[in-house]
Input
Amino acid sequence: MATEEKIIELIGVDKVYDGTAAVENLNLYVRKGEFVTLLGPSGCGKSTTLRMIAGFEMPTKGTILLNGKEITDVPPYERPINTVFQRYALFPHLNVYDNIAYGLKLKRFKNTYEDKDGKKVTKVEKLSKAEIDAKVSRVLKLVDLEEFEKRDVTTLSGGQQQRIAIARAIVNEPEILLLDEPLGALDLKMRKDMQLELKAMHDKLGITFIYVTHDQEEALTMSDTIVVMKDGKIQQIGTPIDIYNEPKNAFVADFIGESNIFSGWIVGDKKVKFIGKVFDCVDDFPLNENVDVVVRPEDVVLTDAGQGDVDGEIISSVFKGVHYEMTFSVGKTEILIQDTVERKVGEKCAVKIAPDSIHIMHRQIDANRFEGYITKKNTVKFADGEFECDVTQLYAGSHLDDEGYLITKEGEKIDLTDVEVNVEVGLRKIEIIDNDEDGDAAGEIVQIVYKGDHYQVTIRTDEEEEDFVVDTEYAWNEHDRVSVKIKPEDIKMTLKAVNK
Ligand code: ADP
Ligand code: MG
Output
């Protein structure tokens, strides 16, 4: 079990490759005996972090401490750390025993004792055959492969080979075991079994595990502490329960388990509006702030039509073993619901969401995103407006013919009328016009936030209440009626995935 003592500490660690940061300003500590998991999508910097702890990579900036002492200049083989990789590089020409004993046979250590005259003598020694035998047997027992000593490693299954790789790493009795997606190459059933075995092994050994995975369920099952990463930065550190119940932002909420994530805004004291309705909530946020609202599927309560907060209809239902997973549709929004009681597809009913089931998070806006569709005139409609755009970006290498049909690179002719698209517009690519007629979509300025060197202005459209968020140097006033204009080349579109 974990103590309070920090065994590893990363302070302000950056790693830059060719001018690009793989990880940025990592601040993190691991307690002695803890099972810590670095969790995040591929490329977020998990392995880079592990390699720096192991000593295979040097941080570009920052410090790494082991038991309170800086280890930046300590080579990997002098760190009391062993690593298990996804690809279990075993020696194919050696049997199980020799694979595990390999490192032990090479091991030299200094032994100091008193000779018969009482003088201190230091000798470099190796482990005896009997000592090596004992250590190998002990770890084989730990990984449940006692009878396998003489087996050729190539005759073992993937799961067994991975267990040998783990045995080989722990036989050196490291203080810290690093595991980089060690179960990634195994099939699902084997992975589930190994997760439990690894957890049990951790408890038995009492050493510190730092584990890397992109699989949230794996992280939730095994860890004492989870470090959620994205784009080289830590998003949240906490226990599995903290991370699941109190995700810090929409990324974490989405990555950990299934969530409904709605765009909302604060309309009063502990009142938030989303899915077209005002809900009471428990979090205090400033008036008019744009927020992400996260509601777990198991926290949405289904009731009869007219009895809940919002009426709608069940549009899908799948039995998942313990509960039903249902989709409830209200206008354009779909809500995922888990309940042990099924409501049938087509049933008109209502949902109820309790204040403490509504998790509100600051929205980190990096671009405006809308759902839209292409018109007959090859313009795009979204957010209560119609905009000139370049439809050829939807198909690489395409062009328009004289009649306005799109011709693909392969020569196929496509009618884009009513095709649904995802639209993205940069925060600085929107021009605000001080009347509601000359632009392409009109609305009211609902919020202005000063961001140090510019203002972030939110314009809410009249009908659909969609928000344009604009970074601008110019000062505006709240409640001004305005409209927006966007250059065609600044409207980035992708085809919406068609799931039929
Ligand atoms: P993860 O393990 O989370 O999938 P990595 O730590 O392997 O992520 O990689 C993080 C980022 O650093 C990626 O963008 C990756 O391409 C980059 N990167 C990793 N190792 C190197 C390297 N040796 N040289 C250049 N870029 C690298
Ligand atoms: Mg990796």
Q: What stands out?
A: The chain has three domains: 6-80+174-245, 258-362, 368-495. The chain has a mean pLDDT of 91.
